[in-house]
What does this fold into?
Amino acid sequence: MKKIYTLIITSLMVILSMIGNKSNAQAFTEVPQTFAPTYYGAAVWADYDKDGFLDFFVNGWKSTGGSSSAPSAYLYHNNGNNTFSEVANTIQPLGAASAAWGDMNNDGFPDLVVGGNAGSSVYSTRVYRNNGNGSFTDIQGGFIGLITPAFAWADLNNDGFQDLIVVGGDAASDGQTKVYLNNKNETFTETATGMVNLTNGAVATGDINNDGLVDIVISGRFDSFDYRSAIYINQGGAVFTQLPAALESARYSSLSIYDYSGDGFADILLAGGNNSEVLHTSLYKNINGTDFQFIPTPMTGVIQGSVAWGDMNNDGLSDVLLTGSNVSTGATRVTEIYTNQGNDTFVKFTAFNFDGLRRSTAQWGDYNNDGKLDVLVTGYRNVSDYITKIYTNNTVNANTQPSPPSNLVSNVAGGSAVLSWTAGSDAQTNVNSLTYNVRIGSSPGASDVVTSIANSTNGKRFLPRNGNAGMTESFNISGLDYGTYYWSVQSIDGAFDGSAFAAEQVFVVSDLLTATFQVTSSGQPLAGATVSVGSQQISTNENGIAIFNLAPGSYTYTITHPFHAPFSGNFAISDQSVSIPVEMVALPAFDLSFVVTGPQGPVENALIEIAGEVITTDASGIATLFILAGTHPYYLYAEGYNQIWGEVTVNATTTYPIQAIPIAIQDLPYSEYFTSTSQPIHWLNFDETSTGYSWFFDQGRAIIDSDAAGQGVNVKASLISPPFNTTGLTSAVVLTFDHFFNQAGANNTGTVFYSIDGQEWVSLVVFTQVTGTINDFETEEIILSDVGPLGNEIRFKFSYDDGNNWSEQWMIDEVTVSTTIAYQMTMSNLLQPAYSQTPLIHFEPFNFGARGQNTGALAINDVSLNIYDGSGDVANSIIVPFFPVGGQYDFVASPSFMPVTAGSYFFTHHFVAPGIDLSGPTNLAMLKIDITDSIFATDFDETAGGFALADGIFAGNKFKLLTNDDFTSFTIGWNQITSVTSFSADLYSIHPTTQVATLVTHINPIEVDPSSSMQLVTYPLSEEVSLSAGYYALVLRKEGAAQPLISYDGADNGKYWVLNGSILNPVSDAVVGNLMVRMNVGDLGVSISENTAISLQLYPNPITDYAIIRNNASTLIHGDIFDINGKLLRSIDLIPGDNVLSTSDLQNGFYYLKTDKGPLRFIVNR
It folds into this structure.
């Protein structure tokens, strides 16, 4: 029975496989054209120029050589002959990105939303208007910047205009789910929805319950190891409630919605990694719009990819195209098709093998208009191997255009209309799975009221997607004005082909009525109250009246006024106009008087901003306004005084005193490092266009960032320094600052001005190109000569203008204002230590020194070079009594330094002079000396005594090699050789604990004669031997009968080594002492490094698994480590002296250590 059962299953699988591949002739062929290769981005079809052929857009990371990448944006135009041409565009290049086409302004031309990482961890979301001439314009909509976002366009409130849904991660790595409602004027307003905030996710829209309202499905990461998937049902007016359906959790997810089963309800396909890190591609069948049934399939589970429905083989059943990584490490990648066999069965299509990809996208679209869905893919195939490809579908059967709907009917009530029709038909797609696409216009053939994104003449679709009415045979539109409207509808099949539009119909909106609001307070008309009914807002006039034109129906209204409690209510209007009286309740409010004084008395003309009002102090320093009870923030500015931001609490008539602090003139030199998150005292900060954008202070930087500015918002903001005293100044003024100026747009500028004695601002320098990076600021130095005679004080202004390009930044750090330096020494050419080349003397004394130049404005008396280490002074040079301006001198310090043991030695060099401050970055240098091995024998002048090599006995010295090196030669100190003899040598590696010796190399016999007596003789190897760090023994054996004697030290604690079998044993003898045998390596054991950044030193660089950071300051230094993309990896505190930095958890690449002493760049390379 088991055999029969097995045979049945096997036979069934064969049958299914045959069914799944019944069209194995339906292979794909790659379009023979090279497109820009990208990954971790979007690939989206659209006929953006409405010429009847699908074009496409891709973005994501592109290779810049090696393992480096940069953001990108490519637009390709379909030439109509199976070729494409790249089109120059102004769309922002992005990586870790997404994109989606829609029609935001109902002009029929597809518009584009893009989002992702613009580089340096600057996240962006932008909507580009299609100008209809092949160009695109950023509407500067003020959308939240996101990384790895997902987008969907849909009309959520049935007003005829597409709204925008976005899901992704913000700059703080928090998830965001936002809905932006279309204001019908190329601006958008964010609306609260209560949806869960997600990142690393996906979003899809469709009418889940066929009620004529667009619903939303989202998935992604909510928190660490907490992933979500949710369905939100539209209750009307873009108000959503969550449907309690059990969808699998998913991060790095993908979504697609379509009625694959032909029952007339939209089903859900979801891919991603669940909370158990199991990768899945899950199919959920929609049961009557309220429940979902999980359908098992053989589809590969993927992350960081996409899923898409489309009828690949034109059999009327929608198939699945998916791509992504099917293991969490990304090691295995797929791009696959699963054909729909009907009856909830899917089979993998094996007639063609697509490139396996991750961080990828694959989309259906018929680019050559042959009635067959082709495939556009982009993604990561391997390291530095990305692709963008199009595969032409060669299936035998072509799709045919569906038939249009019929029996079009309109039902108009006031400003709303319900449009309905009888279903269309199609030779392939089940009639229940057809979707419908409605257009409504204010003139015949137009779609300016509801866009169809299709050719109104022949029905050709400009986007390969479902229709805007879903599968229902009706369409709701509201908020219409008086007038005549022209409308039609087309059928859309499973291959996204549209029928011709049905014969155009007309309806008229003419039965609007009036609702008159009569608003009072304490029985008196209340002017200036805002009355809101639906999307309309009207302010009451001086008689408290607001009049609305409305269609019959039921309405909710809200009335607000600054000094009254909000009021809401409902009313109905049917066959006649209505009047609605409303009595508003006044809120507690009181007079608030500010009294502003300075050291000299009342401050007149001080501007105070509070509760949306601007008031000015009079000659008595008083400004008064009527304000609601409560706590209110305020801002105060008075010429010549520090700005003040504060809060005032009002519970009764209140007098509020403010003590204004005059801006103080600063003496030079002056430095500001912006270490506080508050504005530095005596600095001024102005939002010059009242956009809500001004300089702020964070992470030791002054920053102006216009990332969230919207359309028409021109951010201009200035940061002004304190005044600096220039009275009697005869030297120049030097302004230095570090900065990063980001110029991702076309015309934003950063300008530095100066002003003398409050006169007109004069431009010094204008920045229009990217300068520095977010982690490596550029240093600017500006010198102004002859300032003193012009006035008594000077100020500087950093003025930023984003030029309406709102994803821009200017960051400034370490502003210093000084005069030309009177006393300054500049150090160069550290004198290299003299090292004896005598092979037997490994540790040899050497001298310190450096070249000094007087680069200040005055001569210096009694200059000397001082050398010190962590424990104190080490050496000093002679004193030069008089050192003229521009003079140079090579200073040599003594005593010499004599190393005793192997190790790293740090010596700080600087020039000193009595009573003069010579400190500065040009007067400091660090010398690092590494004694990297300790392979030395006895003193070179040892001649007394000797050690004879007995016949057959090996003896020699043991060495410790601290770093990898090349064994090049060896040296013997011969004492006495009585006749010609010969010896051989063997190098053994020694186990550090067992002392087991293993032969490394043998040196053939060498002949010596009495002339070598009392000599140090070096014997080079015929070929160098590369050695790893460790213990070694170089042992000798005589070959002849003579007994040569080798020098030794007979003092005490002498030691030589004898090889007994395979074990190296030491022999101690006060007479024998150390053998004069020296093993020589290539670098002689000493390396010397010079670095002028004295505060912090990092060795080695590049790094393998750890490095030493030496803090030469006397205090703790805090540092943050960032990767090349600006992501904070960890924070460290560096104590004075040596600190170990472990890099074992870092991958190969560039990193930055940012401290208040400046940044260090280091490389990890294993």
About this structure: The two ends are 60 Å apart (CA to CA). Residues 1-30+306-316+339-399 form one domain. The chain has a mean pLDDT of 84. The first strand starts at residue 28 and ends at 30.
